[in-house]
Amino acid sequence: MLDRNRLESLIRAAGAIAMAHWPGAGHALDVFEKGPNNPVSAGDLAVDAFLREELGKLLPAAGWLSEETADRPEQRKGDLIWLVDPIDGTRDFIHGRCGWAISVALVSCGRPLLAMMDAPARGEFWKAEAGRGSFRNGRRLATSTRTDLSGARVPARHLPPEDSDLVMVDQPNSIALRMAMVAAGEADLLATLRWGYEWDIAAAALIAREAGAAVSDAFGEKLNYNKHDPRAFGILCCAPAIHTAAVERLADRARRLA
Fold this sequence. Notes:
Elements: H1 4-19, E1 31-35, E2 38-41, H2 42-58, E3 63-66, E4 80-88, H3 90-94, E5 101-108, E6 111-119, E7 124-129, E8 134-136, E9 139-140, E10 153-155, E11 167-169, H4 175-183, E12 189-191, E13 195-197, H5 198-210, E14 214-217, E15 231-233, E16 235-238, H6 243-257
Parallel strand pairs: 3-4, 10-11
Antiparallel strand pairs: 1-2, 4-5, 5-6, 6-7, 7-8, 8-9, 12-16, 13-15, 14-16
Helix pairs in contact: 1-2, 4-5
């Protein structure tokens, strides 16, 4: 049986490792380029190595898929898998901003069972368990009850003219934190029209869903995990009453971009 208290302790310890690298706390940081416009830091790699070893000890039967570990099919053949983003929001991390989080989900047969996210620079610890609700710093979360798409609060720094009826709120670089804002009722809508990886969204998707949010891909379809191709096209996380309208708007946007 999984020791949930031990899991939380490990993720908080990973948060402490990240903070020991974070420029926002005055630390020098080595930054590398994995590819064009795709940075990774020594902090990402240190957290990844720590969690891979410790989560492997905690639940040896579970496979592993992480942003910072080369994917090998033999690592994720079973029904259980850890999906990990060691630092989601690396750009905020390397620039000393606080919009980053460590994201960990345990997935069984393609569905998240447990999710924990540590955002130590923000003093926030998020967690959820399937069927048991979601929490931030011990307080139960509930998504907004908004019924109109127009006026919905969106984590963004700018909006295209066709979305001028939406309202911008603070946007952390971490997509997981933006989804968690919907879970907490601090935003009404998070929507993307680009490919995203399972490790970016698995934990936050469960946290949002357990808070009552609607979570899907950009076409309104349910998200599946530990697929052969670990990506989804577009993420939609929103107050449930505006989900249909949001899907319609995204579909119209996709048609115009095609």
